Amino acid sequence: MIRRLVDFSLDNRFLILAAALLLLGWGAISFHQLPVEAYPDVANNYVDIITQWPGISAEQIEQQVSIPLEVAMNGIPHVVHLRSFSLFGLSDLKLIFDDEEENAWNRERVLERLSQVTLPTGVVPQMGSDWSPVGQIYFFTLKSTNPNYDVMELKSIEDWVIEKNFKAVPDIVDVASFGGPTREYQVRVDPNKLIAYGLGLAQVEQQLTNNNANAGGSFIEAGLQQINIREVGLVRNVQDIANTVIMTKSGTPLRVKDIAVVSQGPKIRLGQFARAIHREDGKIIDNDDVVSGIALLRKGANADDALAGMHARVKELNEHILPPGVKVVPFIDRSDLVHYTTHTVLHNLTEGIILVVVILFLFLGNVRGAFIVALTIPFALLFAASHHHHRVPANLHSATSRGTFVSSYGLDGCLCTSRCSAVFHAHRASSVQRVIQQGGKRMAQPGNGILENALSRRREMGNRASVCDGGRSGFWLDHGHISHGRWSYRL
User: Fold this and answer.
1) Do 203 and 344 contact (CB within 8 A), yes or no?
2) N or C: which end of the chain has fewer CB within 10 A?
């Protein structure tokens, strides 16, 4: 089989060369399209269901939220595990799927089951974002040199500007925000005035809710036109809240500002985000309250494409959208690690090829033979890349390892073929094609055949020669002795 293959390859050299170039081009295109990740995404396909019910104990959450959700989710196809835990005011249900189905279909099935669940009034379950635990690809902070924008203003910018623009980047499913006080409208009611006017907090809250809404009407005719009617009642600022009428006594309105102080203030904080910067001169700059965020990558998406979109969007935000003096400053960028990784791999591969060429030249004494043998390294790597699925990253395929594995066997085979061909060429006056054919056939023989041929061809090949059996073992003939490893045979 191998002999016929060697003969066919040598008799149809242009056909084999064209096929090799075609495979080389196909491998180069496949290698270029192959996604490269800094971390392998080995997480399972999962769907997370989060339900909040503030102020309710964990036992009641388990009975009225977690268990009904578990009952509804049982029986979904491809579910491997179903896990849940209940905390004070929070229920978290996690469904883990197998790898046979795409996660988008899993989320569709979970969404269908959620519509069939009956939960207490006001309790609405939500699905978590479709991101992987290794999907945190871009960490950033907001920096302001404008005195008009404090930490609270930066938090508002992140909530209403940054998140909207980052989620518009393809394959960015969510932005996790940290730090900064959240702005809110606060109505600080005086309890003594409530008692004096005979009011309760529920009445004040109900009036604020009723007066914060728009209403639609019909239309009136004006000649040949019609004019739509609507009532605008949404609150726009602090003065609108302060002027809200709570009740009327003897024709005198009682407003919110008469019983309370209305202002903008920070929401009650449950944590704080700080950052320390270590400068090159050794000085440490501490900032005990910063606004930060993490861009989350969709599970299974290509991080390189998403990061390219993030870089373009950050540039647009810093130059055209954000207020003067406010900038998005990244401090962890996955693209840096990916570039360092690919640079290291290509650097090591290039050095390996050069080293192989030099060593082969020293042992073979032929530049052309050394170059031909060294070409098997990039060819094997590209050929291995052509068989990969483009949706799976290269580090999960182990393209580099496979290429090195394949090239090691191909390198040994080419080296043995070159060495055997050199031996035959040195002792027989034949054509180059004939020499290569004999070398390839000799290498295709099993180990015992090589030993027998070595014994029979000892006198024809000289007092000292080498024969190779496909890169696995070598026999040295030296003045009546055959040595193989640590074993020696006398002829």
Assistant:
1) no
2) N
